[in-house]
Amino acid sequence: MPSRTPSLEVRLRDHGISRREFLKFCGMMAATLALPASFAPKIAKAMNTAARIPVVWLEFQDCAGNTESFLRSSAPTAAEIVLDQISLDYHETIMAPAGAAAERSLEEVVTKHKGQYIAIVEGSIPMKDDGIYCVINGHTALDIARNVCGNAMVTIAAGACAWDGGIPAAGPNPTGAVGIGEAVPGLKNLINLPGCPMNVVNLTALIVHYLTFKALPATDPLGRPLFAYGQLIHNNCERRGHFDAGRYVENWGDEGHRLGYCLYKMGCKGPQTYSNCPAVQWNEGTNWPIGAGHGCVGCMSPKFWDHTTPFYERIPHLEGFGVEATADMVGAVAVGAVAVGVTGHAIASAIRSKTQPSGAHGDDTE
Amino acid sequence: MRQRIYVWEIPVRLTHWINAISIVVLSLTGYFIGNPWLFVAYRESYAGFFMGTVRFVHFAAAFVFMASVFLRTYWAFAGNAWSSWRGLFPFLTKRGRQGMLHAFQYYFFLRRDPPETIGHNALAGMTYAIIVVLYAMITFSGLALFGDLHPESIWAKLTGWVLMNAPAQQLRTVHHVIMYLLILFAMYHIYVAWLIDMEEGNGLMSSIFSGFKFLRPDQAPDWIEPEAEAAAPASKKVSSHAD
Q1: Where are the domains of chain A?
Q2: Which CATH number applies to A8-228: 3.40.50.700, 3.30.300.20, 3.40.390.30, 3.10.150.10?
Q3: Interface TM-score (ipTM) > 0.85
Q4: Backbone angles phi, psi at A253, to 5 degrees
């Protein structure tokens, strides 16, 4: 069972995090979850009284980028506060034990806290050739996922790879990589936090939501929480005014780029990507890609390595028409060809009607 | 003397021109949305809304176009023989196939006499079948892209499955390429209408304004009309004329 320990506030004070900072964090979480400010005290109360929940963090075919996103932030960090409220019992990148001891702690969580722990999955799961492309301690990623996620209270797919396979699943997908939802179908309480990486604020808010309400937040048809993935980036973008006015960056580093114009013509995927990036931003609200002058690549949308590339074009080039042939070039050539054809036909018809009158125009001589 | 026959009923002419105008508007605005080539806003961005206006016009024109196509589809079942849905499938009947061959030979200078018909010729019907498919594809891809902007809308619910399977970018390319195909069609369509008008002398160009065509007294019934009427076509035509 989850252990009873001193309240979170007390523990945080030991870490040098003041009550004021803790309450600021609770207010930020309420805002991230799109709740009114009145929920901040409720979150604080829930965080203080909730029992610590064991969490295991599984890494499969990944780059540990979501771990980086989770851990790399300034103090007092959202991660620090949540790390104190959860009990991160297994995380290959940051855990102290190694080898058999590490595997034992995973085993312990699964058996002792069956149905009462949170499993966070990072990385895709290879399905091809019996899943031999990702094997940890003699078990394939698929076996581990079935065992650990199958017995978990909640499974969180952190990042694009755990959601839909991410870059390992991008064509030609040599390992047959899939996300956790597809690898272990019928998983109860699965929540997806796609992104490359996922935003730590959203992971934190998700856990806070669960601790506060004992329930998972509302999700969209893709299993992504609506508080984080319910708004189009384009609709909340700081450059939207330039978009509507018709002011666009034409080339990297041009006048418009320096003036912060819209990155639409540079292939920005903000107009098709749902995420709260413009609001919560990254690295503790320091900045975000579009703010830094680079278009969105749509990393929070499905199959983004295949579906939103090329990243720097609004309308992709046409395949099968040679290198660098845009739809517009092909279209212009076709229009020209038809214009020539029509003109030629008209001239030929004119010559024919001179040499062979058709007998039309009323004098029905045929 | 040629006889004056009422061929194109009001819904046919109305939807023809709504389609024509909305396709022009949609092509101009759509091209701009895909590639905003004009720099329009030197003033502060709060003072300009050019792209916003262009998108509004595009969406509004798209719904007008859809309504028009919807009305025309209804009329394909409710209207006269020359506006019937049967006109899209000339390859299904023997007379239709003969008519297609005739028109094909005429267009390629293989025979002299143009395919004189009351409504459109069989090859044109075949072309319109392709246009109907293109209309469906461009409307559907447009609605899917529009629905992606409004995930709670009915359009998103109807078309959401597309974006689950096809990237929005590819959908946008399809949408864009179909615009070019419709432009190609428009060029061919206007040229052929002009050619047939001159060659057949039937007032084809004015018929899409007035509805009336001028046909020979011995004009045979179209490939599209039921065989039963083929015996005595004249009475129907004269009564249409009297309207």
Answers
A1: 8-228, 233-307
A2: 3.40.50.700
A3: no
A4: 85, 5
Question: What are the pLDDT tens digits along chain A (366 aa)?
Answer: 455 567 777 777 877 788 888 888 888 889 889 899 899 999 888 888 878 889 999 999 999 999 988 876 655 566 677 777 788 889 888 888 888 899 999 999 999 999 999 999 999 999 999 999 999 989 999 999 999 999 999 999 999 999 999 999 998 999 999 999 999 998 989 999 999 999 988 988 998 899 899 899 999 888 999 999 999 999 999 999 999 988 999 999 999 999 999 999 999 999 999 999 999 998 878 899 999 999 999 999 999 999 888 899 888 877 777 667 788 888 888 999 999 999 999 999 888 888 887 655 444 444
Cβ separation A272–B148 shorter than 8 A: yes
By three-state DSSP, how is residue A118 classified?
Answer: strand
For A354, the token pair is 């001179």
Q: Does B225 touch chain A (CB under 8 A)?
A: no
Which token pair is A355? 């040499």
φ, ψ for residue B166, nearest 5 deg: -120, 140
B199 interfacial to chain A (CB closer than 8 Å): yes
Q: Is the CB of residue B170 less than 8 Å away from at least one CB of chain A? A: yes
What CA–CA distance (Å, rounded) separates A73 from A79?
Answer: 8
Q: B12-200: what fold?
A: Fumarate Reductase Cytochrome B subunit (1.20.950)
pTM of the model: 0.85
In chain A, residues with a C-beta closer than 8 Å to the C-beta of B173 are 315-316, 318, 327
Provide the phi-psi class of B174: left if phi over 0, else alpha when psi is between -120 and 50, else beta.
Answer: alpha
Class of domain A233-307: few secondary structures
